Amino acid sequence: WLGTSAILAIGGGAVHLAYRASLARAHARLEGRSQVFQSRFGPMEYAIDGEGPPVLMVHGTGGGFDQGLSFAAPLTKDGWQIIAPSRFGYLRTDLPANPSLGNQADAFADLLDQLNIDCLPVIGGSAGALSALQFAIRHPARCSAVIAIVPATFVPGRSPVRPGKLGAAIMEYGLQSDFLFWAGMNLAEDKMIATLLATDPAIVRTASPDEQARVRGILRDILPVSIRAKGLLNDGLQAGMPPEQDIEKIKVPTLAISIEDDRFGTADAARHIAATVPEAELVIYSSGGHVWVGHDADM
After folding, report:
1. Which one, of 54, 252, 298, 245, lies nearest residue 146 by Cα?
2. 117 vs 89: CA distance, rounded Å
3. Kind and range of the H or E element at 182?
4. Cβ contacts of 154 within 8 Å, gap of 6 or more
5. What is the CA 7 to chain-centroid distance, rounded?
6. What are the φ and ψ backbone dihedral angles of 120, each rounded to 5 degrees?
């Protein structure tokens, strides 16, 4: 009994040390990379990377400014400056009493005022496409183009997306606990990829080493999840039952990109955008899941 207890104590201590080290790395990755200004809805965080014409990169579920910078990093090599805000409830951006898509779009306009930017293209990924499209609708003079990537947006006739028992448990517990999220990544990576990244784990396993590392990085970089929890829960409401938007009012060049086997069903949303926004273009890849495995170089 004493021997078993000693082994468990040593094992538990090792787990605790590994968790604390991972959490420390996650916090260190965010440290000193962003700024905060006072929008009309409260403190709003953003980061800037690169030099050249600015583009607004709106992150998806589980993100923050860091995800925006990561997703748009290739654009800096092409001479773009990335403006990456943290949406409502993520990291150091407040969740206001009314975190509507319209208010989020207006907060983006406040950010442009803060940076003295008149007009720029906007890219929205996943749940971020909702507020990116809303920005193009509400602030047409300030949006020169819009790109919706795997958009978690409205599809006519679709029932609200409800998570299964596993997804509901992850949302309720795992997405509010750094330790549970870390444990899930280490003990049930395939389940996390299938549930949170809406991607067939088999596709990831057969991808190139670089693509496998990219996908695992997307999952890993959700940590620390505790300071993203409010945003995640808000996204669950908005992207789970996305409202219909007046996207037919968008007059700027528009591109919708998705993957046919995305388990969030964003291919249908991309088709709806392309069919509704005047002269919008559509790109659909056959496989790759919600995180476009095998197509990162094409994006």
Report:
1. 252
2. 24
3. helix 178-187
4. 242, 243, 244, 245, 269, 272
5. 40
6. -165, 160
Nearest-angstrom CA–CA distance, 15 and 28? 20
Judge whether 148 and 257 are in contact, CB under 8 Å. yes
> What is the C-alpha to C-alpha distance for residues 184 and 262, in angstroms, rounded to an integer?
22
CA 127 – CA 109 distance, rounded (Å): 18
Of 198, 199, 190, which Cα lies nearest the Cα of 240? 198
Cα gap 270→257, rounded to integer Å = 6
- The per-residue pLDDT for 166 is 58
- Tens of pLDDT along 87-115? 999 999 999 999 999 999 999 999 999 99
Tokens (6 digits) for 152: 């978690």
Q: Where are the beta strands (DSSP E) in the chain?
A: 35-39, 42-49, 54-58, 81-85, 120-125, 143-149, 254-259, 281-285
Task: Tell me 286's DSSP state.
Answer: S
